[in-house]
Design a protein that fits this description.
The protein is of the alpha+beta class. The protein has eight helices and four strands, in the order H-H-H-H-H-H-E-H-E-E-E-H. Helix 1 crosses helix 6 and helix 2 runs antiparallel to helix 6.
Length: 184
Amino acid sequence: MKKRSKSKVASVYAIALYEAAAEKKVLEKVKKDVALLLSETSALPDFVKFFANPIIETQIKKDALKQIADKLKLDHETLNCLDILAENGRFAEFVPILEEFVHYANKRAGIAEVQVKAVKPFNPAQNKKLQAALEKMLNQKVLINYQVCPEILGGLQIKFGSNMIDDTILAKLNRLEHIMKGGQ
C-alpha cells in the first residue's frame, strides 16, 4: 500500500466521483474503471504527463479522453470526472485522486485496509490464515496489501488505521539496543 495522499484536492474529487457514481447507481462499474485506470497509468507513465501539460488545449485533452473512454469502455461518470480534471487543470492529481477513491470506497464498504511487511511473500495458506485472524481481530472485512522488506530480517509489521503491530526482528533488536544503552 502506498502512502495515502493528504491532498485535499484528491479527497474532494474522489468523494465527488464516488457520490456521483452511487447516485447514478453505477458505483461497481466506476470502481472497475478506477482499478483499470490505475493499472493503465502505472504501465504508461506518460499518460498523466500528457494530460497534465498546460500547453495542450483542454478540448484536445477532452477529445483524447473520449477516445480512451470508448476504447476502455469506461462509464459515463468516469469520463465526466476525467473531463472535469482536464477542464480544471487537475490532471497532475490524477493518480492520487484514483487512489483516494479506492480508499474512500473501501471505507464506505466497511473494509479495513491493512499493510503487512514481511521478509518474503506469503503462500496462499498463510495469506488465508492471516486474513482470517485480522478479520476476527478487527471485526470487519480486510484488504491486505503486502510489501516484501528483507531489511526487517524476520517477523511481521502490520499497520491498520493509526495502529501498528511491529513484531519484526529488526524492531526487537532496536528495542534491545535501546535497553542496553540504558534507555527505557
